[in-house]
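TASK: fixed-backbone design
INPUT:
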């Protein structure tokens, strides 16, 4: 998988789970873990701000923040209930133990390879591989951006990947606002994310679009990407065999 540089990673020193989005997650946690006692893995958890939020709300929970960036992990606040692991999502097999809850928040679109096909393989491998880390009552929380095409549902995501992954276009795509220029990013439509979730052995227990506003998109992105709309989707998953 391709890796972002430290200068690119610096732009991700933020927490995208705001108050409204947090309510989507909390509602599901309270329903599926009513005792508030669970073990939590934040895959791609970076600075650990989401883990801190979770630990503050659930005093009996324990967390593990897993990220491939030492730069971001170094910004975590120390907590006796929080463990830090620096490694790539390709190496999930190195993680010991099982988790009741795994968060994959805005990570899947960063699992890019040297081709669109390889990127799809990466995304499926990581998502599918999480099943081996889940405890019997395990759940997965996924936040992703849903890009819906105007002509073809999947076209904007493919065009964005092709443009941002080409190193020869990095200077141009960076000027146009792509902080993953030269490395790549691979968004998908809601229909595509749902298909990938099913193909990797999960069912969607709950789905919501927490944001009440439509993203303000620059006109040239709409035109050149044949883009209808972009929304944030929250997918709450369990293994398909689970009841």
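OUTPUT:
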């Amino acid at each position: 998988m391709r890796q972002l540089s430290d200068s690119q990673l610096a732009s991700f020193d933020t927490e995208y789970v705001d108050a409204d989005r947090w309510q989507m997650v909390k509602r599901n946690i309270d329903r599926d873990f009513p005792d508030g006692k669970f073990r939590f893995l934040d895959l791609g958890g970076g600075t650990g701000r989401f883990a801190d939020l979770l630990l503050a709300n659930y005093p009996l929970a324990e967390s593990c923040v897993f990220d491939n960036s030492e730069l971001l992990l170094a910004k975590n606040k120390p907590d006796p209930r929080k463990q830090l692991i620096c490694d790539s999502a390709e190496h999930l097999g190195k993680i010991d133990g099982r988790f009741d809850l795994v968060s994959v928040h805005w990570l899947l679109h960063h699992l890019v390879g040297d081709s669109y096909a390889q990127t799809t393989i990466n995304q499926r491998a990581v998502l599918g591989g999480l099943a081996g880390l889940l405890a019997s009552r395990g759940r997965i929380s996924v936040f992703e951006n849903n890009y819906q095409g105007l002509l073809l549902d999947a076209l904007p995501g493919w065009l964005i990947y092709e443009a941002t992954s080409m190193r020869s276009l990095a200077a141009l795509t960076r000027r146009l606002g792509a902080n993953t220029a030269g490395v790549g990013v691979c968004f998908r439509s809601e229909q595509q994310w749902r298909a990938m979730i099913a193909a990797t052995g999960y069912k969607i227990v709950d789905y919501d679009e927490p944001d009440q506003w439509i993203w303000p998109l620059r006109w040239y992105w709409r035109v050149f990407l044949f883009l209808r709309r972009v929304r944030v989707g929250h997918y709450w998953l369990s293994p398909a065999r689970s009841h």
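COMMENT: The chain has a mean pLDDT of 88.
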